[in-house]
Design brief:
Blueprint (H helix, E strand, L loop, with lengths): L2 H13 L18 E5 L20 E5 L11 H11 L5 E7 L3 H4 L2 H10 L11 H5 L5 H14 L9 E6 L6 E5 L1 H7 L1 H7 L2 H9 L16 H5 L5 H4 L1 H7 L4 H18 L24
Parallel strand pairs: 1-2, 1-3, 3-4
Antiparallel strand pairs: 4-5
The structure holds zinc ion.
Zinc ion binds next to helix 3.
Length: 288
Amino acid sequence: MRLFEAIIDANHRAVAGDPNAGLHPADFADELPVIALTCVDPRLNAFFPNALALPAEQFIWLRNAGNIITGPLSSTMRSLALACAVKGGREIAIIGHTDCQVCKTTTIQLLDKLKELGVDRHVLPENLNEFFGMFSSERANVIKAAGIVRNSPLIGPNIPVHGLLLDTETGKLDWLVNGYEVWRKAPSSDDAARSSGPIAGALGSLGGFNIGEMKFPEGKIGDLATKGNNWLSQKPHMVGETVPGTPETKADVVKPVAVHAEQHWPKPPRIPVPPPIRPQPSFPTRRR
Ligand SMILES: [Zn+2]
């Protein structure tokens, strides 16, 4: 049994009332620490890392409103990449939750709230849903985010990427995307995960060129969010302007980046949506 399989097993036993439910972190030393991206909802403060049966020091916690990943190179993606590279995170879990207020907020309500807060409509992009990454299904949002992370060129192919949903009534965790299964069952996603090759290879051909120096347009998060993912392929000249070197070496970089974006970013692999969870309000919430 691998780490998150053991975590889910322990969580389900705890929710069912087993006072001995838990896991021994020492058994999973090679898979710790884990990185979790959750929503900012304060109700989650009481659940993590308890609901995962993990000690706090093995739990790297990233949060944003709605546990949203807007694109394969977004700010949150960069934090996930740094959490792996700098803090040694071994596995990533995108953990959504039931009753998410981001999910329940309509575009009109969001505009009204922002207006109340003194944010004028004219300073906001036309498509607010794309810009903020708004969603109407907590489950679909997690599945989409896990797909973007899995296929981001910033995440190495050996980092499992899971998607989970926490029931805020019971503390029960359920699989939405089993990162181990995705890895074993889908050779195509394996290829996709390794498809950072064209970018890495092209960048490597420039010797001292550092990806940190590539200035992707910061104001384009909304574009990246959905239709988005193909902005790069539509605007190779924008990348070209930021890449040092001769026209030939620029072309070496820009072309594979555009091809990669076209092939992988617009269409993350489709993962079937599991059936809805039946509410089990009678289960007591137990902590270890
Ligand atoms: Zn939320």
